Amino acid sequence: MTSLTVEKPPPAEPEAPTRTKNTLAKRLVPWGYLSPTVVLIVLLMVVPIIMVISYSFRDNVIVQENSVFAGFANYTEVLTDPDFLAALKNTFIFITVSMVAHLLLGLGFAMMLNSGMLSGVTKAIFRVVYVLPWLFTIAVIAVIWRLLLDPSGVVNYVLQTLGVISDGVNWLGDPGSALWVVTFVNIWSGYPFFMISLLAGLQGIPGELYEAASVDGANPWQKFWNVTIPQLRPVIISMAVLDLIWTSQQFALIWMMTGGGPLNSTEMLSTFTYKLAFSEYEFATASASAVVVLLLTMILAFFYVRQQRER
Q1: Both ends of the chain: CA-CA distance in Å?
Q2: Which burial class, exposed, middle or buried, applies to 87 when counting CB atoms under 10 A from its CB (0-12, 13-18, 19+)?
Q3: What's the domain range around 202?
Q4: Residue 70 domain-assigned?
Q5: How far apart are CA 31 and CA 25, in angstroms?
Q6: For residues 3 and 200, what is the distance between their CA atoms, to the nearest angstrom?
Q7: Fewest CB within 10 A of the end CB: N or C in the chain?
Q8: Neighbour-count burial of 113, counting CB atoms closer than 10 A to its CB (0-12 exposed, 13-18 middle, 19+ buried)
């Protein structure tokens, strides 16, 4: 009998290098998608921030060829400038009043639109009316309110007709009223964002919580304080921190309505920094002021990120 010999197949080649290449390629694919955005962020944000920080420690930047190292002299000049301190105070008042008013108006209108006392058509009409200020750009808002608040404008005409005032008031030209007027306009233009966010939060509260509170004998105020507010707390905190950041960076509205005047009564940190750079050409001092604003904004952003992680 003839014996059959079975040939063994050749040993397989190692696949480790191929697997390594495939794994490396898979890891690099997400970075390939992110690379355009990363490049834009570096060019448009990181590089300018580094340049501004470097300018803040030097003198005679941009306007002269050779700048000199100045240390913290620019920061000392900015932080001891009476105009900077006035701008800081105005910014604090502007932010605080705007944020509180945004919250109260937004919550009040959101609760009204979420109640069952209004019909669907009425709610739709009110939604359109309340959201209108949010649809206009800052430039349009500034122009509209400058016309309305003119000494011969509609606001003075209505107040004179009602007998509230006898003569036309220059609301934006009076140092005593200008800050409160621009704050009111900022409140009017910004509350719809609060209203929409809080309305979404209210619609997400389970009705069983209110039913359980009714069974326990809770009145409407107790339901609001012990059910509504705790359920909306994460939304309220997030919106408050975002509003702080956005309002602190408000520039266009102030600049187009008053330009920081009259007599610096509406001067904000943003307009103060802008004037230093592009009116007085003190780019080094303006850079120091911009870094201070950046640090304050980063502190607010830190609290916002931490609050989001806690959620």
Answers
A1: 81
A2: buried
A3: 76-310
A4: no
A5: 10
A6: 84
A7: N
A8: buried
Q: Angle at which helices 269-278 and 82-114 pack, to 10 degrees?
A: 140
Sign of the torsion formed by the C-alpha atoms of 280, 285, 291 and 294 = negative
Q: How confident is the model at residue 271 (pLDDT cuts 50, 70, 90)?
A: very high
Please check whether residues 159 and 259 belong to one and the same domain.
Answer: yes
> Which pLDDT score, from 0 to 100, does residue 90 have?
95
CA distance 260 to 264: 5
Q: Which of 64-73, 166-175, 225-234 is predicted least confidently?
A: 64-73
Tokens 């509260």 sit on residue? 205
Does 112 lie in the same domain as 33?
Answer: no
- Summarize the confidence of residues 4-16 as an average pLDDT: 54
List the CATH number of the domain containing 305: 1.10.3720.10
Residue 197 lies in a domain: yes
* 267 and 234 share one domain: yes
How many residues are present in the chain?
A: 311
Closest CA to 254 of 176, 181, 156, 157: 181
C-alpha Rg value of the chain to the nearest Å: 29
Query: Across-strand partners of 169?
Result: none
Residues 81, 50 share a domain: no
pLDDT at residue 7 tops 60: no
Question: CA-based angle 62:278:252, to the nearest 5?
Answer: 135
- Which pTM does this prediction carry? 0.84
Task: Dump the DSSP string for 120-138.
Answer: HHHHHHHHHHHHHHHHS-H
Say which residue the tokens 């962020």 belong to: 41
Contacts of 291-297 with CB under 8 Å at 24 or more apart are 291/52, 291/53, 291/56, 291/75, 292/75, 292/78, 292/79, 293/248, 293/269, 294/49, 294/52, 296/248, 296/269, 297/245, 297/248, 297/249
Q: Given pLDDT bands bounded at 50, 70 and 90, which one contains residue 1?
A: very low
